[in-house]
Amino acid sequence: METENHRIVNTQQLFLATVESLENEINELKTQNFILKAQLDEKVAQQEHLLQANKCMQAEIVDLKLTETALRLSLDRLLSEKNDLEIILDTTTSHSDTIEAMMYDKALLLAREVTIDGLTQIANRRAFDQRLEKEWQRLARESLPMSMLLCDVDFFKRYNDRYGHPTGDECLRTVAKAIDACIRRPADLAARYGGEEFAVILPNTEREGATFIAEQICQVIDDLAIPHEASYVSNHVTISIGISSTMPDYRVSPKNLIESADKGLYLAKNQGRNRAVFSGS
């Protein structure tokens, strides 16, 4: 009986030990399962992160490809513009002499338009004023004389009334050309002063030289024999001239020389026209 009881006790102990061992294994398996599940969750999270990163990289690749395409198009456009500019530069360089010559001619033309009278093609009033001031200052420094002539076509209004303005314009052109031909020094200047009046600047010229040139102008105009049936002094065009000479001075205006020549012109008209008369300044 004792032996039987002892066997039952051993069997129970073995059973309990087995159950305990199984429970330990189960708990250990549960622990391992928990760890594995945590690792699996971590791997899933990493996979999601990698998928998201891959998606962003794919988008960046698309953007980079679009940017590359845009840059390539821009580069092609710039190369085309560069080629066009090189062609223009080559053309401009090869024609630079021609362009420079054209610009120089244009500058001369503009300068001429500013200083040349459009009708008579001799110096205009602007050129006259500039030259008078310049020569006045120069001669004042050098203590040299200056003379001036003021010329007026006799009875020119009656000429226009008789022959018409186109013929009158042609008359003024002829007279201007004749006056200009009577002066030869580079510093001398014949200019259209206004209307039918002309002025002559004679630097470094005293009364005798100015009178000689004035009388020569009167004679040349008379020799032209331009018909003027409406004149009271001749049957052809004549001219009256006022002469003035002085020593330029910084303290005196060159207008005084003009006024003196104008006074001489007034005297020439009062004395019968078709003559040159001197008036001191």
From TrEMBL:
Protein name as catalogued:
GGDEF domain-containing protein
User: Which superkingdom is the protein from?
Assistant: Bacteria
Coiled coil stretches, renumbered: 12-39
Keyword annotations from UniProtKB, A to Z: Coiled coil
Example GO BP: negative regulation of bacterial-type flagellum-dependent cell motility
**UniProt cross-references to PROSITE patterns, sorted A to Z:** GGDEF
Which GO CC annotations does the UniProt entry carry? plasma membrane
Recall the GO molecular function terms of this protein's record.
Answer: diguanylate cyclase activity
The GGDEF domain covers which part of the protein? Answer: 144-281
